[in-house]
Write a structure and sequence with these properties.
Layout lengths: L2 E7 L6 E10 L4 E5 L6 E4 L3 E5 L22 H16 L5 E10 L5 H11 L4 E6 L5 E6 L2 E6 L2 E11 L7 H20 L5 E2 L3 E5 L2 E11 L4 H8 L7 E2 L1 H11 L10 E5 L4 E6 L3 E4 L4 E9 L5 H16 L3
């Protein structure tokens, strides 16, 4: 067992927290971090939990001890995946799948300084920086909540569709959002949960905008059980989920690792907030790898999806 640390600032909140403790496998009290494929999940036990003044945190060190030889996805890789997914849609195996790419840069940034910049730039995002048992750092500013719990009040969200500031929403984005919303509601109904759906709204996440419905409910079920049912959400996998996950394995030639996984404080002070790991990057001692993606549906256009990935990458890239 190793001792790990993390810092995080939850969406819309002003306080940043530092947590340090022994790394444990699985979902336990503390700071949880899990990968996309549910193959590796760890928790940092809450031996030290304190509010952090990031303005005076220059002595706090987050360094990777791993040298990597990561490689970026090529445009050919992305085009191959796009064709695979649209072929599955055409043959009615799926109606949506997420296609991602990996963008690697050859100089690792100062992780604390990058965290500070993300925290300042994205007050409505969950901003995090964590060590992992593999010795790689992960950092991000994600707009998507997997699940939050305070007392017996729960909230999740349906988040999908992407546009820039000067574009209008099209039927493609509305359809994408409906797919995600209906899938989440269906999964909650199967747990005998009666959710309440908020009005559809547009939210900003960095240089792009998304469609969002908040979903609120009450239940006696544990957070972990609900999270396991919801993860991975259709917003990061597709629909139907199992077929989309199979398609993604064929369409992508890189491992997502913790990208599109989930993380956050779990059962700390009787509250939990688990977020989806989007707008995130892995940092070794010699590289940084950004992960970005978007939903592919029957109406998707390759050039538009490529531009969407580039816009999403800017949420971190602009600070490097």
């Amino acid at each position: 067992m190793s001792v790990l640390k993390a810092i995080y600032r939850l969406a819309g909140e002003s306080k940043t927290f530092f947590i340090e403790g022994v790394s444990m496998e699985g979902v336990n009290e503390g700071f949880v971090f899990s990968d996309f494929n549910n193959k590796k999940t760890f928790s940092i036990s809450p031996e030290i939990v304190k509010e952090l003044d990031t303005a005076n945190s220059d002595d706090l060190l987050f360094n990777s001890n791993q040298t990597t030889s990561w490689e970026s996805s090529t445009q050919d890789d992305y085009e191959f995946g796009f064709v695979i997914i649209q072929n599955e849609i055409e043959h009615k195996k799926i109606n949506k799948a997420i296609l991602s790419k990996k963008k690697v840069y050859g100089e690792a940034p100062n992780a604390i300084e990058l965290f500070k910049k993300l925290e300042k730039a994205y007050p409505k995002a969950h901003v995090f920086l964590t060590e992992t048992p593999e010795g790689i750092l992960w950092i991000g500013a994600t707009p998507e909540t997997l699940i939050t719990k305070s007392d017996d009040d729960f909230e999740t969200m349906s988040l999908a569709g992407t546009k820039s500031e000067n574009e209008d929403w099209t039927e493609k984005e509305y359809d994408e959002q409906k797919i995600v919303t209906n899938s989440i509601l269906s999964e909650l109904y199967q747990l005998n949960i009666d959710p309440k759906l908020s009005e559809l709204e547009t939210i900003q996440a960095g240089s792009v905008f998304h469609l969002r419905n908040k979903v609120n409910f009450k239940t006696d079920l544990p957070v972990q059980q609900i999270a396991q049912v919801l993860h991975p959400t259709p917003a990061v996998s597709g629909n139907p989920k199992s077929q989309a996950m199979t398609t993604i394995k064929i369409a992508e030639n890189h491992e997502r690792d913790y990208y599109c996984g989930f993380g956050g404080p779990y059962e700390l002070n009787s509250a939990s907030t688990l977020f989806v790991n989007l707008r995130c990057a892995a940092i070794s001692n010699n590289q940084i790898a950004l992960y970005v993606g978007g939903g592919i549906t029957k109406d998707s256009v390759l050039e538009n999806e490529t531009r969407e990935c580039e816009r999403k990458a800017e949420s971190i890239l602009r600070f490097l």
